[in-house]
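Worked example
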Amino acid sequence: MIEAAAATMERLIESVVRRDRLAVGVALAGIGGVAWFYLIFETERFAATGICHCASTAIGGPNLEAWAPQTLLPLLLMWVEMMVAMMLPAVAPLVLLFSKVARSRAERGQPHVPTIFFASGYFAVWSVFSLGAAIAQWTLHGVALLSPQMATKSSIFCGLLFVSAGLFQFSPFKNVCLNHCRSPLTFLMTEWRNGATGAFRMGWRHGLFCTACCWLLMLLLFAVGVMNLLWIALLAIFALTERIAPRSWCLAQVSGLVLVALGTWMLLYSPPTAG
């Protein structure tokens, strides 16, 4: 009788664990789908009208007109959506692993916390980055340094941005941050904190490493166009590949060489564009 009850309890626990993983996986897929749907919708609208939602919401006019201060809020939301769309695939394995570890701890009677607190801490860091990017875009537009495609008009600035991003790929700081992002299990084993606040702090700390690893790559959108869906997709794929590719691929160094080469070409052969 006791053995039957124990077996039944074990099956119930396994069922809960499977449902928990499924719920987290479905939630991640849903959030990512909404973010990409928004980006595709905005990109198609921008291509058809030349007006992005962030500008039309605040001033009701084309992108070439000055943006009012209240434009910063929709700009911020646009950047947050882009960061969610680009970085969610890269962080999804860690979020799923966090959910598994948290559930395992709950089964052993240890403190358990919903995965949402960890994910919220992670994207809180990217939201801070998004605020800085939104302010930068608003400022560049205000001084007429952005084209109607929301890319910088200066080929020199574009070249320097690509070269800087490429050189950063070789830096020891990049290597430290990338190694952290490539070792999710080690992170959970060494940085685990109990409670909702602890989970948020864990997400925040991992987000800091992740943002420090990718921030210059994300700023390349100012060179190729903030609403450039192809580059957004490429950056999303690259961010994920950097974390899961074998170390023998030396992906950071290879990408660094490519970025430096592109930036050098822009500096040497691209004619300066009039402001």
Q: What stands out?
A: The chain has a mean pLDDT of 82.
